[in-house]
Write a structure and sequence with these properties.
This protein is an alpha/beta fold. Helices cover 45% and strands 17% of the residues. Bound molecules: zinc ion.
Length: 249
Amino acid sequence: MLIDVHAHLQYKDFENDLDDVIKRAEEVGVKAIIVNGLTKEDNKKVLELSKKYDVIKVALGIHPNEVKSTSDKDFEEIFSFIRENKDNIIAIGECGLDYYHDKDEGILKRQKEVFIKFLKLAEELNKPIIIHNRKAERDVIDILKNYKVKALLHFFSGNMKLAKQAEEIGCYFSIPVSIIRSEHFKTLVNKVSISKILTETDSPYGNPEVGRNEPSYVKKTIKEISVIKDISLKDTENIVYQNFQALFS
Ligand SMILES: [Zn+2]
């Protein structure tokens, strides 16, 4: 039983062969793929996909780097769209803070305001939240402390001190396929408890090898985690699946 807690199957990259991509994922045992919306239009596409494929679970949000091109009116519509669909979503996401691609003070301030609104929405709807954070881990952790939400840090690239702090406040970490080439993610898996670890692909991004990423590749991540934690493949799969249930139900 495998899971991919972070993918973007709504992208054009999958428009010609999504059936095959889903089939390959199911063949290796993937039971759930959380597809995350990044923009207002994207959120609608994600919801549509979930009606077609049972394995697709929905997370709705706005990517932090999309905040600058999203108006207040858009945000009102996005928030009501999420509320209207609260029974069809498994989480709020993708949202968070990204100080790598945006640098302007005013934009960063707005990113924070929006992130806080999403946290309040997650509290209100009693849903976990999927967080993108880049060069902003300190602020993400400081803000998160003020809210009673279950949080998943996707593609966490902060240092191990910050990772431990995030773990202490109850955060989960989704480990990408790039762990097969990345010392950072190998160390992260080594340092945090297996009870806080999940698997993701960020498809179509994040393939450390040639070509497009896809959900079936979570199998490679499980293999790596199993070696690092010295737990059998089967047990690693089961524990990660239990973590998925603990976080998203
Ligand atoms: Zn993403």
